[in-house]
Write a structure and sequence with these properties.
Number of helices: 19
Order of helices and strands: HHHHHHHHHHHHHHEHEHEHEHEEEHEE
Shape: globular
Oligomer: single chain
Helix content: 40-55%
Largest sheet: 9 strands, mixed
Length: 410
Amino acid sequence: MTGTSLRLGRSIPPADVHFEQGTFLAGQGRLLEAEASFRKAIEARSPFPEALNNLGNVLIELGRVDEALATFRQVLADGLPDARVYYNIGSTLKLVGDLDASARYLQRAVALAPEFLDAYNNYGNGRSNGGEQETAVVAYRRALRLDPRSQLAHENLGRALYLMHGDGAAETAARYADEWLRDHPDNPLAAHLGAALAGKAADARASDGFVRQTFDLFAPAFEQTLAGLGYRAPELLAAAVRAEGVARGATILDAGCGTGLCGPLLRPLARRLVGVDLSSGMLSRAYGRGLYDELCEVELGAFLAGRPEAFDVIVAADVLCYFGALDTVLAAATQALRPGGLLAFTVERLEGAGDYRVNPHGRYTHAEDYVRRTLADAGLELRGMAVETLRQEGQSPVAGFVVTARRPAA
């Protein structure tokens, strides 16, 4: 009997099967199943440092930090002195607050892999958290030499320079900021924050690129961060709107809505609630609240110009602090209000001379007389201008104005 022979493929070892399955499951977010697969791979082959390393990453995602740290240490003991493993240990030690040990491991990671961008960023974060801002700045600048487009490294650098400035090293911070602006003039964060920290003349408002980049990066931690700062603007504005007797059934614009912190306070008054913001990251979280009838990703002035007499109420919580000159945006708000409509907003109070000033944190402060003049020039009638604490900044209260004004009735 003649025929063709059957050629069987090479058998795949069980450890490799479990490893590949664990990698796939982790990528799908099925973390408990991934953990089980990696443990089976380790049981089938010992040592298996790659599986241990992946298991450690899954344990971090599951919040089991102590187990993850022990797992990563076992990887080194099993003979995988890879930069990724040192990075994982260093990053985990930072999570548990052991910043000095974290720094040693992250330094080892970059020694083994001098182009390890994430290691420079994380090393800088640990040094910054420990109060060593200048060391952090050096790490972030090295990260930017590896990837000048790294938004995270730019954001980290801006934060460290601001903290350095606040700690009294303003001259050193200004020098680094000037170099940052010189080396990366096209980056929105460098152009705005760098100029502010270096003491250069401010633009009339923060650029769209700065606002979008800042808040896209900030979106995941936005609400938690503001809660820690005692942020009060939404509550203060909602109270001001209610005091003006806004009737239920109003069409309300939440201007610069962010993640929608004003939404729960405005929804009970609104027949229709619209939100507008430049940051898609912020808007995705606002969408998740299920409170808005419409959400738009567009620059505020352009949005207002395209909605003549569309709103009974416009609320802007900590939005106009990213505008220096207020004339154009207030004029646009007037036109977007129906006759008799209400504008309510917050701005931070300027201490000192001038109409407005950009500060090292990138926000503008405004003089009371300037706000009053600009409202009048825009055709708005001032109803109230209360001085309030809007938040804490560096353990100090941030004073601002809670402003209400109306478009005259027809």
